[in-house]
Every structure is written in C-alpha cells, then in structure tokens.
Design brief:
Blueprint: E1 5-9, E2 17-22, E3 29-33, E4 55-59, H1 75-89, E5 94-99, H2 101-112, E6 117-123, H3 132-139, E7 150-151, H4 154-160, H5 172-180, E8 183-185, E9 191-193, H6 204-207, H7 211-214, E10 221-226, H8 234-243, E11 248-252, H9 258-261, H10 263-277
Helix pairs in contact: 1-2
Length: 278
C-alpha cells in the first residue's frame, strides 16, 4: 500500500493540522474530508485508485487524529481550516470528497467558494436537519462535562476503539489500523482517544439544515448512499434530489461507513466520476 507523505500546517493562533498526501503534487488535487470522530487515514484505501490522475490530500480536522484540539468546532472553522490547507499546498481548483460530517464541510466550501471546487462527492452525508431530540439521544453519552476516558495501556485503548454507528464487513487489519491512528498517549503515560468529544456539542451547525447550501453548489456532484445506512433515508435522498437535481445519486453496498467496508467499490465509483469529468 502506498504510504502517504505527512506534513503539518497551521496559521498563527490556529490549530496545527496533520495532512496526508499521496501522488504527484502537480496533478489535479483532490481533498478528502473525514467525518466526526474519524481521521485522515480513513482514506488510505481510497487514495490508491485516484493516484496517477490526481494528487490526493486528506486532512485531520481540528480535534481529530494528529491535529490540535480547539475552542471552536463550527462548520465555518472546519471549512476555513481546509481552505488554509489548500492555500498552503496548491493553487489549483480541487475536487472535494466528504464522508458524513465531512460532506457537510465539503458542501459548505463548494457553495461558499465556487471557484475553488471543480467537483463534489458526498459519501453518506446527512445534510438535512437533525432533530435535536435524536441528536441529544446518541450524543449525550459522548459529550457534556464528563472527562475523557483514559486507559492504562495502548492495548486497552486499541480495544476500546469503536465505529459509530457499527459497520459490518470492515476488514480486521483495516479496523486495527484505524484504531492505531485514533489514539494518543498523554504526558503522564496513559492513553486516550485523540478525538475531542467537544466536536459533538449541540450547536447549530451540527443540527441545522444544509440542504439549501447544497442547492447553491454549481460544480458536478456525486452523492453516494450506503444501502443499509441508518443515517441517510428516503426522505433525505428525496430532499437532496430536489435541491440538486443535476447531481448523480447512487446507492452502494454497506452502511454509513461503506467506504471502510467496501473501499474498492467506493474508490472505483469516485475514480470513474472524476475521470468522466476530466
């Protein structure tokens, strides 16, 4: 498997962001944006299918993976960070690929910076409003004032890693690799998840309706939904179809995290979409 080049970028006063890059920097760039609780290595099995034709960039969003935690996790913050990464690494328009919350961020960038994006792909990204009661139900156990959980050993931290929602058919070696990049060691020797749970705080940008934002996107758009997804349903799909009638909507095998369960199929769909555009 092709190993990424790893770099860190950061503007004065902002968080330092870990960035992974694959391929020729002079090739047309693709920016991959992960979802809440994930990290840039979620794209490691997608990137190879895009190499040759593209320079693949994946960023650890603030509060995730190897990037710094921050005081604010608004969608504008994530979008500004991604824009800074792009300003630092490339001056060319990019194809934006976002999974889950990363799709919300990618849509925001494509809508507000139309000259920056030449394509947009959304992977099981819920863009409609999330009922506050539903959000409180599943986020309540992960946010609030409870301190983060610590583990005495690296093995204990790795064993505690979970995908939320669960996803069947993720290869054991991939699951182990994702876990390895999802944990960090504290100065006192204990281990913890690198993800800052404050990302899930119930502010407006976590639950608001972004379908009108997608309606402003002008670049070619691909929308992929997991066949067994519990995040994107028929109502969500219909709303996106109405807001973005020119977008290509396809269903793929797997649930919300289908890019992990079926990386080859996912990568093939993305590569074909981008190839056809160019």
């Amino acid at each position: 498997m092709t190993q990424p080049d790893i770099t860190t970028v950061g503007r004065p006063g902002g968080p330092r962001l870990r960035v992974l890059r694959w391929g020729d920097p002079s090739a047309p760039p693709v920016l991959c944006i992960h979802g809440a609780g994930a990290h840039a290595y979620w794209w490691e099995r997608i990137a190879p299918a895009l190499l040759g034709a593209h320079h693949v960039i994946a960023v650890d969003l603030r509060g995730h993976g190897g990037s710094d935690h921050a005081d604010s996790y608004l969608i504008e913050d994530f979008a500004d960070d991604c824009s800074f990464v792009l300003d630092t690494l490339t001056h060319a328009p990019v194809a934006l690929i976002g999974h889950s919350m990363g799709g919300r961020v990618a849509s925001w960038i494509a809508a507000h910076q139309p000259d920056r994006a030449w394509a947009l792909a959304l992977l099981d990204a819920r863009l409609g409003a999330v009922p506050r009661e539903r959000a409180e139900k599943w986020r309540g156990a992960r946010t609030g004032d409870a301190p983060p959980r610590h583990y005495a050993t690296r093995a204990e931290a790795l064993a505690a890693f979970r995908l939320t929602p669960p996803e069947a058919d993720v290869a054991a070696d991939l699951r182990a690799e994702l876990a390895a990049h999802a944990i960090m060691q504290r100065p006192d020797g204990r281990w913890m998840m690198a993800f800052d749970r404050a990302v899930l705080a119930l502010d407006g940008t976590r639950v608001e309706d972004l379908v009108p934002v997608v309606a402003r996107v002008r670049c070619p758009t691909l929308i992929l939904r997991g066949r067994d997804s519990t995040v994107i349903g028929a109502v969500q799909s219909a709303a996106l179809r109405e807001a973005a009638p020119a977008a290509v909507q396809e269903t793929v095998a797997g649930g919300h995290h289908f890019l992990l369960a079926h990386p080859e199929e996912t990568a093939s769909r993305l590569a074909r979409f981008l190839r056809d555009l160019r």
